[in-house]
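Internal tracking record. Fields below are filled automatically when a chain is submitted to the structure queue. Please do not edit lines marked as system-generated. If the sequence contains nonstandard residues, flag them in the REMARKS field before resubmitting.
Queue: standard
Priority: normal
Entity type: single polypeptide chain
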Amino acid sequence: MESEEVELIERCKKGHAAAQRDLYRRYSPLMFAVAIRYSNTRHDAEDIAQDAWVKVFRYLKSFSENNSFEGWLRRIVVNTAITHYRRQKKHAHHVDIDDTYATPQDLDAFKETEYNKEEIEIAINALPKGYATVFKMYVIEGFKHKEIAAMLGVDVNTSKSQLSRARRALQGTLIKMARIAKKE
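SYSTEM-GENERATED OUTPUT FOLLOWS
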């Protein structure tokens, strides 16, 4: 960590309001970006980010400068998003979908198609919530299945199967998008 960042965190730990505002300004875009990955709406992402900031300032004294501050923040946001999801869930965590089977012709079409960031985000957000959560935690945030299982309160094999199903569903969605794009 940079000495400037260490000093800022130390001032925050002592309760300096100006330092807390500086820390907020520096890291709020990152935290909001993580929150929005785990929410369905901007409003939910704002709630998650706000709750995460409360936790950051509450537990900042426990942060050790030997660790990555950005990683610590990300973990707080992800855990807050999971808590938010559990509070808000109206359906069972696991949603079964029909398996998607791709033909060799589909796979050829898929290889020739390039997707932009927005198209990939749309496809990921179309996944059932449980699949999307595990997919984002594993692929985007880089958590291991053991960590995901512990955070979600599921078995490691459940995390692995959710990721596998998410990948198949995502592939199916992208193949459908490629077919639609070819017809246009």
